[in-house]
Every structure is written in structure tokens, then in C-alpha cells.
Amino acid sequence: MHTVTSADGTTIAYERGGDGPPLVLVHGTAGDHTSWDVIRPALEAHVTVYALDRRGRGESGDANEYSLEREAEDVAAVVDSLDEPATLLGHSFGGLCALEAAVRTDNLQSLVLYEPTVLRAVDGLYSAAVADDIEALLADDRNEEALLVFLREVVDGLSEDGITSLQSSAIWPERVEAAQTVLREYRTLADYEFDAAQGRGVSVPTLLLVGGESGTPDEETANRLAETLPNSRIAVLERQKHLAYYDAPDLFADEVLQFVRETR
């Protein structure tokens, strides 16, 4: 693993592989850099992948106080450490981090946001009751149960078979160990409000990915961002939901790589 130091002194780790123009991957809640393992071979045949561990999981450090701003600074630190402008790809909460990072770096070639959690609680992305359930389980050191509540109640498109498969994988213990990060990220959605004026300053080419079978909040998010980000377009991943990079890696990789080629 390679590392950079973020603005607040936290060490952020990332794994590098492949050859070609730089592509920085930012995983969602309850994940780490291994979230991209299924799709990385297809990407690394054409680009250099930088798959980071967001703070509080994997090889990255953490701090006593948490905020979305620190997360955005972490992503920007990785992007700024590269020798040439990069494409930045963020998924779900990682997409939110990537969007916020885009206004904090001048080293971007382009931006890919896959169903970022931009809409506020009033739009159905956040449930105080679910957050309270997760918090109670974590307070009782029932990390695995808390993580399962999040996966079942919040993550769209993850079936029980998918959850069972994840539980039996080698990465599950690390997911359970980092379950405390789930609550703090989920709570962030209760107060987050996208700054449209700031968004209009993100002028790099931006691809907004949305699953063809995803719910209304994700569709509305893509539409709102398309109206705000001045150089953006929407691409629909047919017959997919929130985990297309895992469920249909070839489809997902083709869409991303085509966009990278178009924007070089």
C-alpha cells in the first residue's frame, strides 16, 4: 500500500495497479479498497488504478472528530499527489466524498459519480429510526448486527444471497471491525445539503451513472446534478441497481473506460 498525508495529518492509504492514465476509486459506506476487486482487472488493463481506503478502515488512519470535509480533503490529497490530472470515480457515499473533493483540487481530468448520496433526508435517503437502531447495536458491541441492519435497510440492490456471500468472504471480519464508520457516515446524510453554487464551479467533464432499476432518489440525484454541474451527462446502466460494478463489472468498466478515453 502507498500513503499520502491528508490536510489534518491523517494517513490515507491506497493500492495502485495497472498502466495508463490515472483513475482514483472512492468506495462507499461499509467498504474499503477491496470493494473494487471484481472490476479492477478490467480497469487496470487500460488505466492506472488508485483504490483508496477511506479514513477509519483498511490501512488508513483516523481522527477523533469526523466530518465530510475531512473525507473530501482525504480524496483531494490522493488526487493532488499524482503527477498528472486524474479521473475521480466515487460510488454512493464515496461519490459524495468525490463530489466534495472536486472543489478542493485542481488536478482533475474528469469526474464519475455513481449514485452519490447527495439528496437530503427529506428525499428518503436517511432514516433516523434506522440510524438509532444501528447506534444501539454498536453501543452494545454488536457490530455485525449493526452492519447487517445497514446492508438490509439502506443498501439498495443487495439481496440476502449477496449478504450471505459477503459474510462468508475473507473481507467480512474487516467490514465488521469498521462498522463504527457506518453510523457516522449515515448520520452525515441527515444534515447534508448540496451547495448548488459550489457545484456550478465543478467544470471538469462529469459522468453521472445511475442504475436502470434504481429507485427514484438516485434518478432525482442524477437529474439535479446534471442541471447543476455545467459539463455533465447521465448514463443509465440498464438492468442494474446500486452495485453494478460488482453485478455487471464488464458493463460498468466499459462505461467508465469509454468516458476516460473521451475526456483525455
**Element-by-element helix/strand order:** EEEHEHEHEHHHHHHEHEHH
Going across the major beta sheet, what is the strand order? 1-2-4-3-5-6-7-8
CATH architecture: 3-Layer(aba) Sandwich
What is the alpha-carbon Rg in Å?
17 Å
Protein name: Pimeloyl-ACP methyl ester carboxylesterase
Domain AB hydrolase-1: 23-254
InterPro entries: AB_hydrolase (IPR050471), AB_hydrolase_1 (IPR000073), AB_hydrolase_fold (IPR029058)
Organism: Haloferax larsenii
Plain-language structure description:
The chain has 264 residues and is of the alpha/beta class. The protein has one domain: Alpha/Beta hydrolase fold, catalytic domain (Rossmann fold). Helices cover 42% and strands 18% of the residues. Strands 1-2-4-3-5-6-7-8 form an 8-stranded mixed β-sheet, sandwiched between helices. α3 (93-102) links the parallel β5 (86-91) and β6 (108-114). The longest helix has 14 residues, at 249-262. It is globular and about 50 Å long.
Kindly list the characteristics that best describe this protein.
Pimeloyl-ACP methyl ester carboxylesterase; alpha/beta; AB_hydrolase_1; 8 strands; Rossmann fold; eight-stranded mixed β-sheet
Provide a brief overview of the structure.
The chain has 12 helices and 8 strands.
SSE topology:
Blueprint: E1 2-5, E2 11-18, E3 22-26, H1 40-44, E4 48-52, H2 68-80, E5 86-91, H3 93-102, E6 108-114, H4 128-139, H5 143-153, H6 160-167, H7 172-177, H8 180-191, H9 196-199, E7 206-211, H10 216-228, E8 232-237, H11 244-247, H12 249-262
